[in-house]
Amino acid sequence: PIPANDKASTWLINTYLDTDTRVARGDGGSVFVMTREPASEESREAAVAEILAEAAVIEVAAETLVDE
Question: What is the model's pLDDT at position 46?
Answer without folding.
Answer: 83
